[in-house]
Amino acid sequence: MSAVISAPGSSVVVRRRSTRVRALWLVAAIVVLVGLACLSVAVGSRAVTWEEIGLGVTGHVDTIGQAAVYKRVPRTILAIVVGAALAVSGAVMQGVTRNPLADPGILGVTMGASLAVVTGIAWFGLFSVQGYIWTAIVGAGVTAVAVYAVGSLGRGGATPLKLALAGAATSAALTSLISAVVLPRGDIVEIVQSWQVGGVGGATYEPLATVAPFLVVGFVMSWGCSRWLNSMALGDEVAAGLGVKVAGARACAALGAVILAGAATAVAGPIAFVGLVVPHVCRLLVGVDHRWLIPFSAVVGACLVTTADVVGRLIAQPAEIQVGIVTAIVGAPVFIAIVRRTKVREL
Amino acid sequence: MRAATTTPALADLLSRARSRRALRRRIVMTALGLGIVAAFLVSLMVGHTFYGLDDVWNVILGHEVEGATFTVGTLRLPRATLAVAAGAAFGIAGVTFQTLLRNPLASPDIVGISSGASAAAVFAIVVLGLSGAAVSVIAVVAGLAVALLVYLLAYRHGVAGTRLILIGIGIAAMLNAVVSYLLERSSQGEYQEALRWLAGSLNGASWTATVPVVLALGVLVPVLMSHSRHLGLMQMGDDVAAALGVRVEVARIVLVVAAVALVAIATSAAGPIAFVAFLSGPIAARLVGPHGSLLVPSALTGALLVVVADFAAQWLFGTRYPVGVVTGVLGAPFLIYLLVSINRKGGSL
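Above: the input entities. Below: the structure tokens describing the complete assembly.
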């Protein structure tokens, strides 16, 4: 009798506790992010005093130190929003494709966005940030559909191996096409080159303000689909049985992920592995529920890109290493670890 | 009684089929060879200044021809030679890997070995300030190290092809980031230079870069050829090969080392020319048919691909592209086609 009564009770306790644990992790991640953001403003190739930091953040640019701090603020914000966008995009792509290796970089989506932007700059005189963002989103969407189509042909549907290969092949093709578009145009090589490796260095407030609405829409769409993503993790049939319109839910979530990846690429260039690594780490901490996973991924992704930016500034003084290079060097080993852990049959 | 009457007919049929296959193979290889010679000569003749076949021939023979001796002898001849040599090296090494691992996707450029050689070459040139043969040696060592690393990381209760390929892709992404970083740091971060080491380019080919590749081909192709029978047997499985008298472990090490060395030396001279190692084998298999060794046909296919692509890259468009951009743009659709057909039928060359 007592067992019958206590069983549901204990399960409620477990759920509550895990909610508290998740909330704790989320708060902890936000605290870390705030700390990293302060670090990112304070540290760089130019050593600055506390006084200069205080004045620089409040908009004074009287000394070189203050000006350096002043320029680090938008850069930090850009790192935070790009990291959050890419991580959420990766989490949603992993959910939609039920594939542990999905990531906007690995699936070639960021390269598709890049090619679209580069083509726009070179051939259609694209120059506004607004234009970059729309073009990037279209490029990302087309690439995502194409890669998924190629990767899901044949036996077993979209297995991790097939999707990763289709993405790698598409990335390689798109990289060559980008070169083919850029090389004849000496006048745009510099713009494209700095943007190509994935950087937040030249950030200013204006593109940030332009990209913000897109990121908000993408995030809301992704988070709004999290219940459906949870159901679809059990398989399409089960999800349909639970009342989810699978095709529509998948399209909505994928569109959110594409908007996030495209908009992030438009302002910071293609950055790989953030979307892959972050959701895996987050799943270990807060579990597989997308309602928690998506916001938590956003915070941890922001932490990762901010850290990558700070590390890139510190280890190569007085030069800087682009964020995209740091995330690739950190992210590839995680990718390999995930591959090693996955059973061959599931690849 | 009945068996006795049919057997000679069957044997006759089989031998006729075999000779038809041999004929097809001979025709394809001759056509590839002629194609290479023709493309080689055309790329020596055509340029900003056109030189006739007689001028080109005289330069090759070592006679002094005004103007042509410099343009053809110093600029075009090493470039065309490097195109043929690097293409052949990538082709034969690629098909060795694909056959050894029984997977068309397991070519050195996809599993990260080319990227390793490329990163090492950039490191040797930019950071250590080396040039010439020393760069090749470092590239070979790095290529072997990456091959070993990918193999060890993929090893978990045996090596599965799929895991090896995915780990190779990860390693390649990391090494390409290292190349980008080294080039940026060196402040000679020109886009052209970056492309050379990420996609492959023959710009700036000289005899100092070309000779090591030709020498490596001269030494290592015979090594691979002498093992081609073993390679064919090992494709049927290690146990079968061992039962038929192949010392599998020794053969495998010889084949891998020779193939990695070829890829690395060619990469240190021309960069990892995109997709050539990957594409030559499957294209050659489609040309000569499924029987017999693919080593020589792949080498010929690779050489022809690179010579033609380099010629097209230089002269067909308004801009002089690096060869890797052209092989990348042309190769990727074929790669996707291969992926689709592999996904449909299961993997084979």
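Note for the figure: The interface with chain B takes residues 101, 150, 153-155, 160-162, 164-166, 168-170, 172-173, 175-177, 179-180, 182-184, 189, 193, 197, 272-273, 316, 319, 321-322, 324-325, 328-329, 332-333, 335-336, 339-340, 344, 347 of chain A (CB under 8 Å).
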